[in-house]
């Protein structure tokens, strides 16, 4: 592909942690570089995104980190604007609210023709003065990962921005790479075949609801179900969850792996996947579980029904009710697990349909074609 001087894009994501948003920015940077664009990434030094991008010499990396108050720093804003102008950046894609306010302001000052914010969290946008300015004046477009995320942008202010500028773009998965890694991986947990292995992956936070899964494990043990619950991830609730597991006397029925850079062995180890999140912008890990051909269960709320069709590609349970105890929620999750375990043919059918849905909907190359067409509609045909 021939490079064109105006096909230059800078991704700004200064998040210290690694998550679905950072994976999207990495995939997008690599995907647009593959399509002949000059690609730049602004990321916090020594962050997971920075370290992963530096492995790709085709991408120009710039260490930068924006805080919630960075937009008040005129020297930082000016330096960022000069960087955009010096490198003839024609598109900027922002990752965090702090990036939107600071790098978005710098991009506007540098007269960057296209300024986009990629929002992946399905919670309402606060109706603040700064948000009204940023959403209403800085942005050429807003990229969201689900219809639910798009809806919640306008929950507190229906006029916070022009709705025609909102573009729903689900996450993409590198299906050939995923399948190859899965085929080559060895399980992290081996068992005798009589142990049901249930997996969960995500940051250990209140939002992700892993405490419900620990109560689920207790209910399964009480029902005589031999199982192992593998929870992959790290986060602020790590110690609290470890204490709860001890209080529930779960013993070796639960295993915390910590952060896994390579998830393929995890997927090879589990029989089914349970997502206990109270909300998700997209539910990226659910799509990965489907691609791994694992039966999945999750709560029926937020964006989950956009990924899982109840009874077709997985099971959806009602969200925890106000006042419902974690133990009661765990009992409901345990009942769903037993339902799947008791009917292997149905579980296999759900898994097969889930994988087919994932392959048809979340192919990374198709999503990158969509992103290129959004950023440069006049050049989309030439890049495909």
Structure description:
The chain is α/β, with parallel strands linked by helices and about 375 residues long. The protein has two domains: about 190 residues, Glycogen Phosphorylase B (Rossmann fold, 3-Layer(aba) Sandwich), CATH 3.40.50.2000; about 190 residues, Glycogen Phosphorylase B (Rossmann fold, 3-Layer(aba) Sandwich), CATH 3.40.50. The protein is built from 16 helices and 13 strands. It has a seven-stranded parallel beta sheet, sandwiched between helices. Strands 10-9-8-11-12-13 form a six-stranded parallel beta sheet, with helices on both faces. Strand 12, helix 12 and strand 13 form a beta-alpha-beta unit. Helix 3 crosses helix 4 and helix 8 packs across helix 13. GO terms for molecular function: glycosyltransferase activity. It holds the Pfam family Glyco_transf_4. This is Glycosyl transferase group 1. Keywords: Glycosyltransferase, Transferase.
Quaternary organisation: single chain
Average residue-wise pLDDT: 93
CATH class category label of the largest domain: Alpha Beta
Poorly predicted regions: 1-5
CATH T-level fold name of the largest domain: Rossmann fold
Strand order of the largest sheet: 3-2-1-4-5-6-7
Count the E strands. 13
Which percent range describes the beta-strand content?
Answer: 15-25%
- The CATH superfamily label of the largest domain reads Glycogen Phosphorylase B
Could you tell me how far the N terminus lies from the C terminus, measured between alpha carbons in angstroms? 10 Å
Whole-number count of domains: 2
Shape: globular
Question: What is Rg?
Answer: 22 Å
The CATH architecture of the largest domain can be named as 3-Layer(aba) Sandwich
SSE succession: EHEHEHEHEHEHEHEHEHEHEHEHEHHHH
Portion of residues in helices?
Answer: 40-55%
**Number of continuous helical runs:** 16
> How is the main sheet built?
7 strands, parallel
Structural class: alpha/beta
Protein name: Glycosyl transferase group 1
Pfam families: Glyco_transf_4, Glycos_transf_1
Keywords: Glycosyltransferase, Transferase
Organism: uncultured delta proteobacterium
């Amino acid at each position: 592909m021939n490079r064109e001087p105006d096909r230059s894009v800078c991704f700004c994501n200064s998040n210290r942690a690694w998550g679905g948003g950072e994976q999207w920015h990495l995939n997008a940077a690599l995907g647009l570089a593959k399509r002949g664009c000059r690609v730049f990434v602004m990321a916090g030094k020594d962050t997971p995104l920075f370290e992963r991008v530096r492995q790709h010499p085709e991408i120009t990396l710039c260490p930068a980190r924006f805080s919630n108050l960075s937009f008040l720093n005129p020297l930082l804003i000016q330096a960022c604007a000069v960087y955009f102008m010096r490198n003839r950046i024609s598109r900027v894609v922002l990752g965090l609210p702090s990036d939107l306010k600071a790098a978005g302001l710098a991009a506007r000052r540098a007269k960057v023709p296209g300024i986009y914010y990629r929002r992946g969290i399905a919670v309402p946008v606060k109706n603040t003065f700064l948000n009204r300015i940023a959403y209403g004046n800085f942005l050429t477009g807003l990229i969201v990962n689900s219809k639910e995320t798009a809806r919640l942008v306008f929950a507190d202010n229906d006029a916070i921005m022009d709705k025609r500028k909102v573009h729903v773009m689900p996450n993409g998965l590198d299906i050939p790479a995923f399948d190859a890694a899965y085929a080559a991986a060895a399980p992290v947990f081996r068992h005798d075949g009589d142990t049901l292995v249930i997996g969960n992956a995500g940051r250990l936070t209140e939002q992700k609801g892993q405490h419900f899964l620990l109560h689920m494990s207790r209910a399964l043990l009480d029902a005589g179900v031999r199982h192992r619950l593998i929870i992959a991830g790290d986060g602020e609730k790590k110690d609290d969850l470890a204490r709860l597991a001890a209080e529930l006397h779960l013993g070796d029925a639960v295993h915390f792996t910590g952060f896994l850079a390579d998830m393929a062995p995890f997927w090879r180890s589990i029989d089914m996947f349970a997502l206990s999140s109270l909300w998700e912008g997209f539910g990226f890990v659910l799509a990965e579980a489907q691609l791994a051909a694992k039966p999945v269960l999750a709560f029926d709320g937020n964006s989950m029904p956009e990924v899982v069709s109840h009874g077709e590609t997985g099971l959806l349970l009602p969200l925890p009710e106000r006042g419902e105890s974690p133990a009661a929620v765990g009992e409901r999750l345990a009942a769903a697990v037993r339902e799947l375990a008791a009917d292997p043919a149905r579980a296999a059918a759900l898994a097969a349909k889930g994988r087919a849905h994932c392959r048809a909907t979340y192919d990374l190359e198709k999503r990158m074609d969509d992103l290129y067409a959004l950023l440069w509609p006049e050049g989309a045909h030439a890049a495909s």
